[in-house]
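[job 0412] stage=complex_fold ligand=zinc ion status=START
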Amino acid sequence: MPIAYFHHPECLLHDMGKGHPERASRINAIEDQLQASRLLELVRYYEAPLATRAQLTRVHDSEYIDTILNFTDKSGVVYLDPDTVLMSATPQAALRAAGAMIQAVDLVLMDQHKVAFCNIRPPGHHALRHRAMGFCFFNNVAVGAAHAIEKYGLNRVAIVDFDVHHGNGTEDIFAHEPRVMLCSTFQHPFYPYCGADTMSNHIINVPLAAGTGGDKFREAVLMHWIPNLYKFAPQLILISAGFDAHAEDDMSQLRLRENDYAWVTREILVIADKYAQGRVISTLEGGYELQSLGRSVAAHLKVLMRMD
Ligand SMILES: [Zn+2]
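[job 0412] stage=complex_fold status=DONE, emitting structure tokens
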């Protein structure tokens, strides 16, 4: 069974301004690398649908959704925070990014695919219930988890987040939702400056010091994520797949490499095979150095496609 691969041209039109690191060329760099690695010919393409308002209100306040969707200024922009710029193409792109997760959950839970990857932007894991933050508008992975719970009655959905930044938006949304386990590794202290002291039995936060490399990352995953995931026995695993902890990505000071992303993906698949019938959906978060981003996604997908 091929993996489902989501993309949409409208995700490329969202533009937060010249020099902004969260840019359309990220998506293209990934596609180019997947093509060069001959992985793209093995996936099944899907154009991401638009998420509906009802799907978004499961995880976002109505008033906040209106702020995004009612923005109709054709030429102006609004800074929702110093790094997060709402412009005319943002609402459609954000709806596609969230909609990809919705359809991915549908396909995987209806047994059409075991695995899906969403090559979308804007990313989502900093988006809070009531506001945009850190390049994120709608919390895509949270929209997917809520959909799996509400529509399919799942009781245990795991979200694994290896982006270099803490998935604070995801934590904000699910802090009091024990049907979701969030496992997050992140550089600390670092943006968004939280997460190190808010652990619970289903929020498994693992702060890592600047300079941490693959060995210590793996150790942290084996010590904190894996035992908790075994205890939780997830019926579905979602991945907030950010690749900005890569050594070549100057967004951060962690020192991961492609083989670390391949390794953690394999660990996730072991849990998925044991408890979740192999069901895994990965959605793009960060990753800003185009070469290492492309190579890291290729390494991640190769494992998800059971080729490595
Ligand atoms: Zn990040």
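Strands lie at 4-7, 44-47, 78-81, 84-86, 115-118, 157-161, 180-187, 203-208, 236-241, 280-284.
[job 0412] exit 0
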